Every structure is written in structure tokens, then in C-alpha cells.
Amino acid sequence: MEPIGSPHAINLDTALLQLDFALKLWHFVNDEKLPHDEFDIDLTIDDRGTPYCMSGHEFHTYNDLVIATENAIWITFSAVVITLWEAIREKHDFSKGNPLQTDDERLAALIYMVRCCFAHGTALPRWKIDKEKYKIIYKVGNKNIDLRDVDGKPFDISTIGGLETMRILRDTARERKML
Predict the structure, then answer these.
(1) Among 85, 86, 109, 127, which residue has the fewest nearby CB atoms (within 10 Å)?
(2) What is the DSSP string of 38-55?
(3) What is the Cα–Cα distance from 39 to 67, expressed in whole angstroms?
(4) Per-residue burial over 57-94, b = 16 or more CB atoms within 10 Å of its CB, e = otherwise
(5) For 92-163, where are the alpha helices, taking DSSP H only?
(6) What's the rounded Cα separation, in Å, for the pair 13 and 171?
(7) 13-46, pLDDT tens digit by residue?
(8) pTM score > 0.85 for this model?
(9) 141 Ramachandran zone, left/alpha/beta (phi>0; psi -120 to 50)
(10) Beta strand 137-140 with 50-54: parallel, antiparallel or unpaired?
């Protein structure tokens, strides 16, 4: 039986699971439970008949492993928010007119604003909010997310209320039949 839903909606849970994996890996590495010398080894993986070779000793210090896992969190977070936005976009067109008249339009706008931070600045995500209509306080679950004065600033997860906000955004969009 094939999954029901748009391609991005189908893969949204997998993207969130990957974020959980990155966070658990970071926790494991940050607590120094991963032996550096056992992890950072020469390794060849068979990629469908084509070998992919990685040199050992790429992570010169244990802190290099910590930084790599932190980067994995943000790379995965960006994939989650982009996937969430695309899942909404596959089902609804929020691009016409003033998109902030309904709760659904405000939720879509918030997700789009977070998505833009990462889609246009993967190495250093920044808020880019050109239009005043997006510079508001968004209410999602028990969170008030204030985007009135973030334009041009680096993305900080605390601005949206932490990593758990991604699940709240997904769950709210599902409840509202936006996915």
C-alpha cells in the first residue's frame, strides 16, 4: 500500500526523525561517549557497486566531532523546515493577496519565514523579512513567536521557542488539514 499524501508530507516525519537522530548523536558525542579513535577511521562504503572512500583522521580533535554533530543538527533542522513548508505549499497556495488574514495563513507565513532563514543562508541562516505584514507576533500552541524585530539578525532557535516548535508547527498544520 502506498503512503497517502503529498511527497513532502509523506517524508516530513522522516525528516523529524532524522533531526532526533542528529540530536541524539550530538548528545552522545557531547558527553564524550563516542571513542574518537574508533570513530575516525579509514572507511570504504559500497554505494550501489561504487566504493565511497573516507580517510580516517579527518576529525583532528574530539571538538571537531562535536562541531560536526552540531552542524548535522542545523543541516537537518533546515531540511525539516523546508520539507514542512513544501508539504504545505503542495496542498495550499498562500502566495496570493495578504496572506495573514486567517490562522492558517499566519501559520504558513511563520513556517515560510523560518524556511527562508535556511533556504537563503545555509552556512549562516539569517532572518530576511522584507514585508511589514510578516513582522508580527505569531501564536502557535503555547508559544508567542515575535518576528517584529528580527530582520537581518542571525537565526537563533530561541526566537521560535526551541527545537520542539518544529513538532508543534507540524502537529498544528496537520490538525488544520494543511498537510
Answers:
(1) 86
(2) HHS--EEEEETTEEEEE-
(3) 15
(4) eebeebeebbeebeebbbebbbbbbbbbbbbbbeeeeb
(5) 103-119
(6) 11
(7) 999 999 999 999 999 999 999 999 999 999 999 9
(8) yes
(9) left
(10) unpaired
